[in-house]
Amino acid sequence: MKVQQVSLGLCTVAQSFSHYLKLGKRAQSGDSILIGGGATATGVLAIQVAKLVYNLNVIATASPRNHEYLKELGADYVIDYNDADVVNKIKAIGKVKFALDTVSDARTYQKVYDATEGTSEVYLDNLLNLTADSIKTDPKREGTVKFGQTLAYLSLSRRRIFLVRRCTKLLSFLKSTMSGGTTSCLLSLTSLSTPSLE
Ligand SMILES: NC(=O)c1ccc[n+]([C@@H]2O[C@H](COP(=O)([O-])OP(=O)(O)OC[C@H]3O[C@@H](n4cnc5c(N)ncnc54)[C@H](OP(=O)(O)O)[C@@H]3O)[C@@H](O)[C@H]2O)c1
């Protein structure tokens, strides 16, 4: 994997988990996260961080050929997104409090939203600027679902990066587990900034 891919992917996951989903503050033992598109470049990183850093119950969607691979990475459950009953199969696993849709079209975001039905407090995020208006929402769920819009590209600007303050847990984990080269690369991200997120 190229360094730039690692940086953008991890930057994306860090921004989503720390800034929008706020897992460090909100996640509790036993909580579940749904990674829609677990086999995407972003999804494979999100699964690993969700399990290794936050110790969440990880549910992912992917084609059957990727199920074993994603379980090796830390997914507790992997559901085929082409299954007509995918939403009910996710709901049958249990309440889903957090979700990141890494595919992020209106159809996949709708399914992610629907799969979190029945959970009293839900935090959703996607990577292509979808909002609540992009999907059909249930008025009865208004106020119980928060919508994020991660754009890792916004991390680039002149001021201090949000990662320094908001991703300390992820960075300390990476420092303790990764080789010097990769860690240096990741720490170099801390010279970036994102004023629009402050
Ligand atoms: N906002 C940001 O900061 C940001 C950052 C990175 C990427 N993105 C965007 O996020 C999107 C994904 O990027 P990526 O590079 O991570 O993707 P990618 O690696 O190109 O994803 C390919 C995988 O997507 C999976 N997939 C396709 N349709 C799916 C569906 N309906 N449900 C679940 N999985 C599905 C397939 O998995 P299977 O092989 O299992 O079928 C396929 O292997 C792109 O549009 C990219 O531009 C945004």
Question: Can you walk me through this structure?
Answer:
One of its GO terms (molecular function) is oxidoreductase activity, acting on NAD(P)H. This is Alcohol dehydrogenase-like C-terminal domain-containing protein. Residues 42-116 form the Alcohol dehydrogenase-like C-terminal domain. InterPro entries: ADH-like_C, NAD(P)-bd_dom_sf, Trans-enoyl_RdTase-like. The chain has 198 residues and is of the alpha/beta class. It has one domain (2-153): NAD(P)-binding Rossmann-like Domain (Rossmann fold, 3-Layer(aba) Sandwich), CATH 3.40.50. Helices cover 41% and strands 13% of the residues. It is built from nine helices and six strands, in the order ααβαβαβαβαββααα. The protein has helices spanning 3-20, 23-26, 41-52, 67-73, 86-93, 106-115, 162-166, 168-177, 180-187, and strands spanning 32-36, 57-61, 77-79, 98-101, 122-126, 145-147. A six-stranded parallel β-sheet has the order 3-2-1-4-5-6, with helices on both faces. Helix 1 packs across helix 3 (41-52) and helix 5 packs parallel to helix 6 (106-115). The longest helix is centred in the first third of the chain and has 18 residues, at 3-20. The radius of gyration is 16 Å and the shape is globular. Mean pLDDT is 84; it is low at 178-198. The site of NADP nicotinamide-adenine-dinucleotide phosphate has 22 residues, from helix 3.
